[in-house]
Amino acid sequence: MELTVNGEDRLVPDDTSAALLLDRLGLPDKGVAIAVNGAVHPRSRWDETLPAYAEVEVLTAVQGG
After folding, report:
1. Do residues 27 and 61 touch, judged by C-beta distance below 8 A?
2. What CA–CA distance (Å, rounded) separates 64 from 21?
3. Phi and psi, residue 55, nearest 5°
4. Are 36 and 56 within 8 A, CB to CB?
5. Is 39 left (phi over 0), alpha (psi -120 to 50) or beta?
6. Is the CA virtual torsion 24, 51, 53, 39 positive or negative?
7. If you count DSSP H runs as helices and E runs as strands, how many of each does the chain have, helices first?
8. pTM for the predicted model, two decimal places
9. Are 27 and 60 contacting, i.e. CB atoms less than 8 angstroms apart?
10. Are strands 32-36 and 39-40 parallel, antiparallel or unpaired?
């Protein structure tokens, strides 16, 4: 299926969840927030299959001062 991840079109397997997407992108599962189609995607739903053609934003925490 197709997803847009942080503005970039990607082809992923049909059963891709947020957790699997993070793994495929090589991103940690801590210190990360995910939005799907403009809405926060809570960690409790990260094992659910993402909808086809979803716009996914992956945000990582950045420490500053």
Report:
1. no
2. 27
3. -100, 115
4. yes
5. beta
6. negative
7. 1, 5
8. 0.89
9. yes
10. antiparallel
Residue type at 61 in one-letter notation: A
* Tokens at 4, concatenated: 């847009």
For the record, the structure tokens of 36 come out as 């799907």
Checking phi first, is residue 18 left (phi over 0); if not, alpha (psi -120 to 50) or beta? Answer: alpha
What residue has token string 């210190």?
A: 31
- Per-residue pLDDT tens for 29-54? 899 999 999 999 999 999 999 999 99
Provide mean pLDDT across the span 14-20. Answer: 97
52, two tokens: 């086809």
* Neighbouring-strand partners of residue 5: 8, 56
> Would you state the structure tokens that stand for residue 28, as one six-digit string?
């940690």
